């Protein structure tokens, strides 16, 4: 868990006694972890590592543009860093315009124009630095935010809570060899940016389909007002019925509890009627039957133009549908990457301890290159002595063909 969820950037003399304090207190009272920077205490010419980490780790940055914001080199340096995080990791920027028009920020006119004339006269910063500040103001000044002439109300806090709830799905912090796969899926998703796109990811159980889809989902979520992740569809549909999943889908995307759906046909009608104009990001995890797809995303016109829909499945035949635009097979990991992933869970490093190298090699071969198996095995063996390793590996060889999720229960 990151230390902070929200980074709050403001110029102290303009805002500290009113809007910044009120917003900070409101966010803290709502249980949100906030980093509040004090630019008046700054020394030196660069952003320190602690501040840099606070910006990078935050899911949302909130710059409060006040009349004197552009007079502070620290505020401008922070803003540039926010924009870099937005581009690199999809961090959400939610600007507040406090007693200043968005056009002043965006176009550097009025007080913002005067601030830059002053910076140029001082000759303290080079042309590239000043250009970077202006570009950041232009980009963030064009974003949708709040225009306040007085102190903020509960709306800001509620909006932040909604963004935090939808923003990120939890993924392992021991990932190996995912970047290329993520890049390929993103290429498929954005092959036609303005059109609704359906992408299917298939592969054997435990190969990492859900993890891959979650990473893509996290990178896309800030582009959408409505996001939905339906997990374990195969199991949930068996235990609770497809109607339950349809109800979940509608409730999450409309952000309100929906009346119970009596049958699948009623659910289909409801999804089409309620969501046809909504641009959504939807991840359907572990689909195994076409009837599930037909009930949850039967036709692309059910959702607003530009929606992005991702499916994971073990059953490739499920994806043999005209409505699926792209399919991607996720293979098992090669030996080198398998050993690296196993080591991260068993030794908390990228390679085995020398005395455990033969046993680690054996464990990787047993796993068959399946990430889930490697993670479970590595966690089981972590911190144990060599005799225990030998005993556990012998048992694992016997239960090799069992569901890896059940293996952990035997130790």
Q: How is the topology of this model organized?
A:
Blueprint: E1 6-9, H1 12-29, E2 34-36, H2 49-57, E3 60-65, H3 73-89, E4 92-93, E5 96-98, H4 102-107, H5 111-122, H6 127-141, E6 146-148, H7 154-167, H8 179-189, E7 197-202, H9 209-220, E8 226-230, H10 233-240, H11 242-254, H12 264-275, E9 280-287, H13 290-297, E10 308-313, E11 326-329, H14 335-346, H15 357-367, H16 371-381, H17 386-398, H18 404-407
What would you note in describing this structure?
Helix 1 links the parallel strand 1 (6-9) and strand 2. The protein has helices at 12-29, 49-57, 73-89, 102-107, 111-122, 127-141, 154-167, 179-189, 209-220, 233-240, 242-254, 264-275, 290-297, 335-346, 357-367, 371-381, 386-398, 404-407, and strands at residues 6-9, 34-36, 60-65, 92-93, 96-98, 146-148, 197-202, 226-230, 280-287, 308-313, 326-329. The strands form two sheets. Strands 1, 2, 3, 4, 5 and 6 form a six-stranded parallel β-sheet that branches. The protein has a five-stranded parallel β-sheet with strand order 8-9-10-7-11, sandwiched between helices. The chain starts with 5 loop residues before the first strand and ends with a helix. It is an alpha/beta fold. The protein is built from 18 helices and eleven strands. Helix content is 50%, strand content 12%. Helix 11 (242-254) runs parallel beside helix 12. 37% of the residues are buried.
Helix content: 40-55%
Give the helices and strands as they follow along the chain. EHEHEHEEHHHEHHEHEHHHEHEEHHHHH
How much of the polypeptide forms β-strand, as a percent range?
5-15%
Largest sheet: 6 strands, parallel
Structural class: alpha/beta
Q: Stretches where pLDDT falls below 50 for ≥5 residues?
A: 404-411
Number of strands: 11
- Terminal Cα separation, in Å? 28 Å
* Contiguous helical run count: 18
Kindly provide the radius of gyration, computed on alpha-carbon positions and rounded to a whole number of angstroms: 25 Å
Provide mean pLDDT, rounded: 86
**What shape does the CA trace take?**
globular
